[in-house]
Amino acid sequence: MGFEIKSGIKVLVVGDVMVDHYIYGNCNRISPEAPVPVVEITREAYTLGGAGNVLKNLIAYQCHANIATVVGHDDNAAIVLNELAENGLTNAGVVKDANRCTIMKTRVLVTNHQLIRLDREISTPLSAEKEQEILAYFKKEVPGYDLVLVSDYNKGMLTPGLLSGIFAICRQLGITTIVDPKGTDFSKYKGLNIIKPNRKEAVIASGINITNTESLTAACQKLQEITDCDSVVITMSEEGIAMYTAGQLTIIPTKALGVVDVTGAGDTVLASLGVAIASGYSLYDACNFANHAAAVVVSKVGSATATLEEVNSQIF
């Protein structure tokens, strides 16, 4: 029978949007100028990355989704707005900030292997003025949504003040919040419902080295204590997904068969967890669904997405 996604789900993504720029080419020689490879470019592609990749995953699941984010006053901002328009989305939640640049990650790939990555970004904290601009949009729009996914890439947008405002509004409205965190201080996420770090992030934020089930449980308890969340979900690469809820730890083994590229897998897990929970599934079933979705995307090159059909075909 497989998983089913409830029709009409509305999800608002909040977080650091970026442009993923891919340069594809061939490499057959070393430069005479320096001991570096020469890449002959065959094609280029631009797509939404970061929180924008979470958005793309939601669209692949045919959800009604949109984003609240910040871009710069620059040419790359146009790429973000064009990508949103091409997916039939509005840019009402996109705040422009002259003091920032639109984040861009340029990856050079040769025969599907990444040769180098070049990042353009400014990660200073968002100004109080821009915080209020985003919160005003959020407060006005979020009552029409079923779920809020917070995608933090630690680029300065998600300040403690902005996060506090978002979680307070969602708690008041009874809207579930799921956070993909970054950084060392998870106290800024206090008031969310579910936090979803990867293993490395969980170790750093909890201060507990995860080496076995006991230390994993202790790390989850510590994160729950720091954030006052309902549940902790930790992605652990080849070891699967761990979930801690109602005082119980459960580990769901990985479903990945062939790993080609792990880029954006965390975004897929966040989106998949969200749509499954919004569809009425338990946290265990949502983690199981997300686990299978991650297995689909890591078998593809770049920040890929999975459709419901692909996930279900992976399960059965």
TrEMBL record:
SUPFAM superfamilies: Ribokinase-like (SSF53613). This is Carbohydrate kinase PfkB domain-containing protein. The keyword Kinase applies. Keywords: Kinase, Transferase. Residues 10-306 form the Carbohydrate kinase PfkB domain. InterPro entries: PfkB_dom, RfaE_dom_I, Ribokinase-like. GO terms for cellular component: cytosol.
